[in-house]
Amino acid sequence: MADGKKKEVKKETGLGLTFKKEENFGEWYSEVVVNGEMIEYYDISGCYILRPWSMSIWETMQAFFDVEIKKMKIKNCYFPLFVSSSVLQKEKDHIEGFAPEVAWVTKAGKSDLEVPVAIRPTSETVMYPYFSKWIRGHRDLPLKLNQWCNVVRWEFSNPTPFIRSREFLWQEGHTAFASKQEADEEVLQILELYQRIYEEFLAIPVIKGKKSEMEKFAGGLYTTSVEAFIPNTGRGIQGATSHCLGQNFAKMFEINFENEKGEKGMAWQNSWAYSTRTIGVMVMVHGDDKGLVLPPKVASVQVIVVPVPYKDADTQGIFDACAATVDTLCEAGIRAEADFRENYSPGWKYSHWEMKGVPLRIEIGPKDLANNQVRAVRRDNAAKVDISRDSLMEKVKDMLDDIQQRLFDAAKQKRDACIQVVKTWGEFKEALSQRKMILAPWCDEEEVERDVKERTRGEMGAAKSLCSPFDQPELPEGTACFASGKPAKKWTYWGRSY
């Protein structure tokens, strides 16, 4: 009977993944985010419920970023979700860039609206009419605002949880300055914070660089980004962007000011954002065939403590030891919990918390109780070690730090192994077929980039420029562009992307 019951529990919970990361990445990813309790599918395609397990990761990143931007004297605000069509249409290039993705409200109850109202895909056109109202003189500058909100982009191609959804959470910063120099400085300060979110918190290496004219933000002057790479699919992914908008929007929305000498000036503007896409990148990079692997810095539970009582063991003693262990760790600022559920076996619990990606598991059985120790099992490499309860706090802290660092190192090693330097079109095509992230000398001409897109169009999707890294390798004189043969001006990363 006991055996039968065990099987029934196993079947009911559906533990274990049916797809392997190496064999069917798309299905594996969909399964991991649901089984790991990150999301639940919703009855509207491309919309997802963010469960507490993923929301807590977002809150950790939010807490870090919010403190950092406040140090930069950026203030939080909130603007409405709806945009009038007249305002949205005002900046032509900008709205053309977003037109296919804009969702419109056309009805209220049974009545058609006289004028349809758009739902914000981003808030430049929502906010800037008010910037022109609030900015009069040089003393009103800089104006630095940020909002934590949701946006809607009604994309129809391949919705993917976190990576490409119709509604997502993000922060969007919008700032205005008296000079281009101030705007340029802030663009890079914010980009550095984005790099820190990926590298320090999510343990994902990124490349900082500038987008091509073709890939920059519609209506902006230039776009910088942090680019990540998913080795399993051979695709780059834009991690976050920081744009210098120049004076284009200021011209459209008449954001003018009077300087100290009484002369008229036009504001220089930036906008910048990162979104819940960050969480999807983390799942893709670190996850394995047992489920999620969470970096300790963002895991809402860093240590799970599981009692392992055998027949005739001192069960109460084991439970007490587990509770005491959790208390000790929590007092040290470590996010720890115990799993005391009686209707699941220890083995089931191991699989469950592995699926959820908890960085460290602590097991306490009769032998551990007798020896005043615990057994610690790492999620990243399954290494097991017995730790005396007297040195628990220090050892666990060290292990969590080590897991965080090793996840980053492993991800960097995998990513670097996928980077290929090419000089010719033949080498480029070969590297693309091997799903590489390609670094190539380029003449920096839009026509040539368009041509690369055309020539690589296929089942897998076309290749495009990802970014030109700020950290430029040496470009020997006379180096030719890999695609046109013209003199190369810079090194640029290319590849397929999400």
TrEMBL record:
Xref: SMART domains: ProRS-C_1 (SM00946)
Keywords: Aminoacyl-tRNA synthetase, ATP-binding, Ligase, Nucleotide-binding, Protein biosynthesis
GO cellular component assignments: aminoacyl-tRNA synthetase multienzyme complex; cytoplasm
Domain of life: Eukaryota
Protein EC: 6.1.1.15
InterPro entries: aa-tRNA-synt_IIb, aa-tRNA-synth_II, aa-tRNA-synth_II/BPL/LPL, Anticodon-bd, Anticodon-bd_dom_sf, Pro-tRNA-ligase_IIa, Pro-tRNA-ligase_IIa_arc-type, Pro-tRNA_ligase_II_C
GO biological process, one term: prolyl-tRNA aminoacylation
Molecular function terms from GO: ATP binding; proline-tRNA ligase activity
Domain Aminoacyl-transfer RNA synthetases class-II family profile: 57-295
Known catalytic reactions: tRNA(Pro) + L-proline + ATP = L-prolyl-tRNA(Pro) + AMP + diphosphate
Annotated NCBIfam families: proS_fam_I (TIGR00408)
PANTHER family membership: BIFUNCTIONAL GLUTAMATE_PROLINE--TRNA LIGASE (PTHR43382:SF2), PROLYL-TRNA SYNTHETASE (PTHR43382)
Protein name: proline--tRNA ligase
Source organism of the structure: Populus trichocarpa (Western balsam poplar)
Organism classification: Eukaryota, Viridiplantae, Streptophyta, Embryophyta, Tracheophyta
